[in-house]
Amino acid sequence: MVSEMGGHRYLNRYSPEWREFRYFRPEEFACPCCGRVYVLERLVRLLDLVREAWGAPIRVESGYRCPDYNRRIRGAPNSAHVIGAAADIWPKLQGPLGHCRAKFLSLLQLRGFRRFGLWHDFGFHVDLGDLVDPHTYIAPSIWIY
Ligand SMILES: [Zn+2]
């Protein structure tokens, strides 16, 4: 089942669209506190393509966060995780860190991602907040954690 929000398609835990994705399951995007799954269909679809191109596992550390959970972990008040538009991902390294970071970033950009947070290890926050609300979620943007 797909719900529509401002013309954007969202998935819940039971959406049949999950069967179209080769690499990701709804549990990986669930809020850790309440288990709710609420995620932009486009986010998962693009990540699935990026995962295929990367050719190695990508661990989803954080997907949807309900407002309560986001507050508890002191996430940004307007975090794109709360609107189901963001994921924190750790791809498996396949070579030197700087080289992998450049390659992975270009894969993300090729698929249309325009907002990134980078960790010092091989972790990426990616979000499509700019598609949902371009005034709040400025694109392009890159920040460092
Ligand atoms: Zn929750």
Share of β-strand residues = 15-25%
Number of structural domains: 1
> pLDDT under 50 segments (min length 5)?
none
Bound molecules: zinc ion
Mean pLDDT: 95
Summarize the model shown.
With 145 residues, the chain is an alpha+beta fold.
Can you walk me through this structure?
This protein is α+β, with helices and mostly antiparallel strands and 145 residues long. It is built from 4 helices and 8 strands, in the order βββαβαβαββαβ. It has helices at residues 41-54, 67-72, 97-110, 129-132; strands at 2-5, 8-11, 39-40, 58-62, 86-91, 115-118, 124-127, 141-144. It has a single domain (2-144), classed as 2-Layer Sandwich (Muramoyl-pentapeptide Carboxypeptidase, domain 2). The strands form 2 sheets. A 5-stranded mixed β-sheet has the order 4-5-7-6-8, covered by helices on one side. Bound molecules: zinc ion (ZN). Zinc ion (ZN) is lined by residues 31, 33-34, 36, 66, 68-69.
Give keywords.
single chain, 145 residues, alpha+beta, Muramoyl-pentapeptide Carboxypeptidase, domain 2, 5-stranded mixed sheet, 3-stranded antiparallel sheet, 4 helices, 8 strands, globular, binds zinc ion
